[in-house]
Amino acid sequence: MEIDLGQGRSTDQVRPHNLSMVLRYLHLAGPLSRAALTQRTELSRSTVATLVAELTERGLVVEGPPRSPSGPGRPSPEVRLADDGPVVLAVEVGVDSLAVAIVGLGGDVRSQVRVDRERSPVAAREVVAEVHRIGGPLLDAQPAPLVAIGVSIVGVVRRTDGLVRIAPNLGWRDEPLGELVAEAFGADVPVLVGNDADLGALAEHQRGAGVGLDDFVFLCGEVGVGGGVIMDGRPLRGADGYSGEVGHVAVNPDGRPCRCGSRGCLETEVGEPALLRAAGVDPTRGGREAVDEVLHAAARGDERAVRALREIGGWLGIGVAGIVNIFNPRRVVLGGYFADIFRYVDDQIGGALNSRALPATGASVEVVASRLGAQALLLGAAELAFAPLLADPTLFPGVPTETRRAG
Amino acid sequence: MEIDLGQGRSTDQVRPHNLSMVLRYLHLAGPLSRAALTQRTELSRSTVATLVAELTERGLVVEGPPRSPSGPGRPSPEVRLADDGPVVLAVEVGVDSLAVAIVGLGGDVRSQVRVDRERSPVAAREVVAEVHRIGGPLLDAQPAPLVAIGVSIVGVVRRTDGLVRIAPNLGWRDEPLGELVAEAFGADVPVLVGNDADLGALAEHQRGAGVGLDDFVFLCGEVGVGGGVIMDGRPLRGADGYSGEVGHVAVNPDGRPCRCGSRGCLETEVGEPALLRAAGVDPTRGGREAVDEVLHAAARGDERAVRALREIGGWLGIGVAGIVNIFNPRRVVLGGYFADIFRYVDDQIGGALNSRALPATGASVEVVASRLGAQALLLGAAELAFAPLLADPTLFPGVPTETRRAG
DNA sequence: TAGTTTTGGTTTGCAACAAAACAAACAACG
DNA sequence: CGTTGTTTGTTTTGTTGCAAACCAAAACTA
């Protein structure tokens, strides 16, 4: 029961912190003049100069000529992320597809491959082999230094070690996905694994519909329903990293039984199979085309499709209202197939919020569709992989030039 | 859409941070030798010496003789919080009672008064007048400098300004409670208002059943059900501060209608009135005696009381399981009247967790009763009031001795 | 009483940022 | 086309705050 309040701070932790801040501004806001950096960081000009110099020396940023239309006064050189800076490998293991991408700082997707997948259980080793088959060439084809691998997975991931505790749609239990990936790529870089909805939230927070918001929830509709929560500007994790699993919020007392043992969970009522079933499409087909079929039918005015969407929208609204009551987010971002059906269910979600959310909480929330769409998970995986470097840019370049305090 | 990553850090922000850390260690862990402080903070001896010297000069701590049974080596003087250091006024506006206390650093309750209250709507001004009537003498009777007033209220509080948006049990809507209290006491100190469950969580985290845990949920049973959530060591707030309002999680599809417009909410199924009604006690009576009556009856083996407790336990278990799924806490702490009935409902909550919580999440959680009991809310209010001072001890003593950077 | 251990106190050194003074680069204006 | 004003980069100097090293002090141990 030792109380641990963390460590005291010494002067030499100031520098990494400030380096991190400058790098993160460039990472999120894009190229900025040195003058703009001094303004944003509220540091002095001399300090920003030394910080940029150090980042330049480390090969993370470059200073270019000032942007053309400058005002009066001496123009300030533009600082931007180096083209030959570090990259990460982002991997997305989804229900319907596998994707791999090379991503640089600033969310810059250098190359990308996506392949379809059968919607059936597969061994983890097979998936990893396939990932390596399509990802290997990408890695070989690019010269920039790889610093980490980030993996997004449709499943529940333990925070401490990245173990995939359960991934129902893949038929996995307790698969050490990170280790398998590291092994396959023979890479001596860290491999970080995250839940897809958590990573979607991360990506939307930084480059999507959650930019500038400290408190929002990302809701990801697939076969199941995943949730990723950002509170106070930081991902909600929980004791083991399972926080934000909102797929099993109860929405329909008379609903179908759920694999969690309950009945009428959000997941069973608004997962993709529920929509297809309601619309009279074979739910075992699944995938984007099946959903598109329903949407097209609805656009044509097909009665059954419209009714199906309305039904899903109703339950989704109830679920969103519950989530809003619990988390009090500023915004709810709908991703996965929810983004596709959003314009058909928007009104109903609004209605549910009006009738079921607590007045104070419901009034201040906004529901929108994902802005990153299919890219969200890959970008989130990249973000996960870049996180350590962004938190302490002195980790790069990798070869430690001097002894560093353990952390 | 300006991205704000906060400010860069300069060397002179290091000192306040380290002062804060030392003070918080003493605040939470009690008296510590200087040697122990160097160990915990991982700072050098010389730094700790100057930090303690500054805190001593500010009148926050004192150095006393070493504790008697010391080992070999030069004994290290014991540093403890100053007896004549700052105090706060803690106010608790509950359903059944009002309480006021003078609290020093370290959670030291110097004096305290509690009076019963009728369970009926009252004007905010009347409540505040009563608080002043019982709290004024306490303030007059103690010499230490008052630095803030903290108020716990059974209601939903807006974070930005402490406005009480709604307090159903008091019949309040949009009452500027903080302003009223400040006015009544004519005090020129800040008045901070917080939701009771949030403050209970804060108190349990620091001095109760949540000590040392980074992730836990405090569930407070009264007429309604409030929730306070600590995640990653910090209170969950949400966009407006309404986060953690778990009273309206759906637990019973066939339950009674709730004032929120839904039906079978956690609050309607396990609030105090639900227990009394199930046990055949007049629910309008309410209060501790009524609950005690049920508990005594159950202890005697009274069939109806036992069944009532089992019924409540069942719904509470379902609610807890839902909350556990969403937040993945390490522990759930039951406060308010839940603490009193805990030993009767323990098993059922465990059963519900087994059957309804997701395996990974449910396995790592523990449900316990509050350790602070009736003191929790007052201590939480005190903690709220002390928070600014603990975060930056240079705020004390109040008279600014030199210009300080705005922030 | 002498040796060992641990800590407090003091001095010295270093890292990092701020502030001030100066130089450079541009726009606007006459 | 030169002058003036504005803004920024650069260099120098000063300050803050922590660590490390050394010595002295205060206990225990034999």
Describe this structure in words.
The structure is a homodimer of 407-residue chains. Chain A has 3 domains: 12-81, Arc Repressor Mutant, subunit A (Orthogonal Bundle), CATH 1.10.10; 87-199 and 376-395, Nucleotidyltransferase, domain 5 (2-Layer Sandwich); 211-371, ATPase, nucleotide binding domain (Nucleotidyltransferase, domain 5), CATH 3.30.420. In chain A, strand 12 (216-221) and strand 13 form a beta hairpin. With 407 residues, chain A is an alpha/beta fold. In chain A, 41% of the residues lie in helices and 20% in strands. Chain A has a 5-stranded mixed sheet, sandwiched between helices. In chain A, strands 14-13-12-15-16 form a 5-stranded mixed sheet, sandwiched between helices. In chain A, helix 4 (124-140) crosses helix 5 (177-185) and helix 10 (303-327) packs across helix 11. Mean pLDDT of chain A is 92; it is low at 400-407. Chain A has helices spanning 14-29, 34-41, 45-57, 124-140, 177-185, 196-207, 266-270, 272-279, 287-300, 303-327, 337-356, 359-363, 376-391; strands spanning 32-33, 61-64, 78-81, 87-93, 97-104, 108-116, 146-153, 156-157, 164-167, 172-175, 191-195, 216-221, 225-231, 234-235, 331-336, 366-369. Chains A and B meet through helix 1, helix 10 and helix 12 of A and helix 1, helix 10 and helix 12 of B.
| CATH homologous superfamily heading of the largest domain in chain A | ATPase, nucleotide binding domain
Quaternary organization: homodimer
What is the helix/strand order of chain A? Answer: HEHHEEEEEHEEEEHEHEEEHHHHEHHEH
**Given the C-alpha coordinates, what overall shape of chain A results?**
globular
Runs of chain A in which pLDDT lies below 50 for 5 or more consecutive residues are 400-407
Strand content of chain A: 15-25%
Number of helices of chain A: 13
Q: Helices and strands of chain A: which structural class?
A: alpha/beta
Overall number of strands of chain A: 16
- Give the chain pair forming the largest contact, with residue counts: A-B, 72 and 72 residues
What share of residues of chain A is helical?
40-55%
| CATH class call of the largest domain in chain A | Alpha Beta
- CA radius of gyration of chain A is 23 Å
- Could you name the CATH topology of the largest domain in chain A? Nucleotidyltransferase, domain 5
Residue-averaged pLDDT of chain A: 92
Largest sheet of chain A: 5 strands, mixed
Number of domains of chain A: 3
